[in-house]
Amino acid sequence: EPEVTQTPSHQVTQMGQEVILRCVPISNHLYFYWYRQILGQKVEFLVSFYNNEISEKSEIFDDQFSVERPDGSNFTLKIRSTKLEDSAMYFCASQKAGVSNYGYTFGSGTRLTVV
Amino acid sequence: QKEVEQNSGPLSVPEGAIASLNCTYSDRGSQSFFWYRQYSGKSPELIMFIYSNGDKEDGRFTAQLNKASQYVSLLIRDSQPSDSATYLCAVRGNDMRFGAGTRLTVKP
After folding, report:
1. What is the Cα–Cα distance from A47 to A34, expressed in whole angstroms?
2. Quick check: helix, strand or coil at residue B3?
3. For the residues B55-71, what does the mean pLDDT come to?
4. Chain A residues with CB within 8 Å of chain B CB
């Protein structure tokens, strides 16, 4: 079964550093998403991306965050100047085009720890 | 703020019983509704989706939707210990928003 692949599985970074989280969505999917889940809390929407541009973003997704699809397969989330409160599990998800009633397929996540 | 509310639990049922999980949402423009299962430390896994009022059955799972009451539920029949997980309700309008989840424990 096709999978959404995320790397790395765990990243430790120092406060103030920049991190890039990487995702390879399912190949025939055209809608891409980033979510985060702080330990013990709910899954929170960050951003959706379609046709090489952001389609929706939440109040969490401020100027510290950016997304990019640098080539035909990767989808990245960049977090600039990381803060302790950015520590969380970050999930990438993708969805096939034209099936808005279907759910998203999630990757296994990147656990980001900011120290 | 578009809210999705779930009883956080924990909900404990004996093996073989029916587990009933509930969810309410605030955005009347929501179009489709999802139940995900999340094991500790893992990513959400889609169980079911529903977008029409009424019931939708898939194996041991039944999702129920009442748009007038802005209410979604999930019934798990013949609950198994392997069903023990956190169940996330998700609601889709312009984007997909999740509830905080209900932790279910099925005791052998």
Report:
1. 5
2. coil
3. 96
4. 33, 35, 41-45, 48, 56, 58, 91, 100-109
